[in-house]
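Hi everyone,

Forwarding the result from last night's run.
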Amino acid sequence: MAKRSAGLLMYRHGESGLEVFIAHPGGPLFAKKDAGAWTIPKGEPEPDEDLLLCARREFEEETGLRPDAASYLPLGDVRQAGGKTVYAWAFEGDWRERELVCNHVEMEWPPRSGRRHTFPEIDRVGFFTLEQARQKLNPAQVALLDRLIARLADAAPRA
């Protein structure tokens, strides 16, 4: 079965317009990568787990912030270069300069060394303008930004 993840794209209306909250993967594989390496907070669902519930759980596990939005905007799914399908929803929220709290993963590092190390799943997070996020996000996830813009436009009151 193909890999899949579910995640949330938090957004806010900041001083420079619409901003999105994205995360940089932790560990040595991403330590020196920036452009194209960031992601929405996401994770793999348990068998038969509701994907939105998974996205909410993973967001909290990866950031320490419980997403308690009144509603979530479905953004559909994207397929990443490695074959993983990412299902996403958006919600309005804020970080308020809190401390990042996330799960840790254990892996052999350096490869084939026999030594195991623990690394945070996420090493930094932040709000970025849409232009900045387009540069930082995994290329497949950039489509989620356009879908967010469209969903917000659909939800805007008509004059």
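The helical segments are 51-63, 130-136, 142-155.

Cheers,
N.
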